[in-house]
Amino acid sequence: MQASKRYTLVLGNPHYSSWSLRPWLLMSHLGMDFDVRWFNFGPPFSTLAFHEMAPAGQVPVLHANGQIIWDSLAIAEYLAEQHPGVWPIDPVARAWARSASAEMHANFSSLRNLCPFAVALRAHHHQQDMRLQGELERLQTIWQEGLSRFGGPFLAGERFSAVDAFYAPVVFRLQTYGLKLDEACQNYMNRLLELPAMQRWHQMACQDTWRDPDHEAEILRVADIHLDLRQPA
């Protein structure tokens, strides 16, 4: 097995694309060698250049040794076959991390719909929603279980792994909409926000001048924006 390989990630805007954050953060934090092809949401997603890089019409996509791997969970599993550290070494922690990642990948629809990903904004919801509250309680339960069961400071133990990358977009959502969890979960959230790769993603989102009308409207349907950290369009 080679120690490092050359990869290309196909991603959407850092400000809008929660799915893109997952593999980028995982690969960045673990020191993998990769390039990025960025595509803006909206008309650029209809171009031939985009569909040549992302045949399924979605991001993220990983190009690796002539292969095309799409979907963030599939990318994580592919990388786990090539590199150590993607999942925890301990089999119990690894099984839990995979289960928690799969739940995040498949569920939490209210969190996604009512807290649209908008890294460089700070906003307040128009009103409270019981469905969102229920999912925040489930999120807190998962984080509490991982931190207490495996000892922290990350969800599945002392080392950052794919499960942390899968919950990283939630951390930005909580920050954007000012949503609070208990002290242990807040400390975990702050720990992720302090990671150099997370700070770099936030910086890229703030530097983005692209505005996608559909995403902008989606945010305004559920919240009032009180701070926009992005550069002017």
TrEMBL record:
The keyword Transferase is assigned to this record: yes
Domain of life: Bacteria
PROSITE patterns, per database record: GST_NTER
One GO BP: glutathione metabolic process
Molecular-function annotations in GO: glutathione transferase activity; maleylacetoacetate isomerase activity
Keywords assigned: Transferase
Domain GST N-terminal: 7-87
CDD domains: GST_C_3 (cd03194), GST_N_1 (cd03043)
UniProt name for this protein: Glutathione S-transferase
Record organism: Alcaligenes faecalis
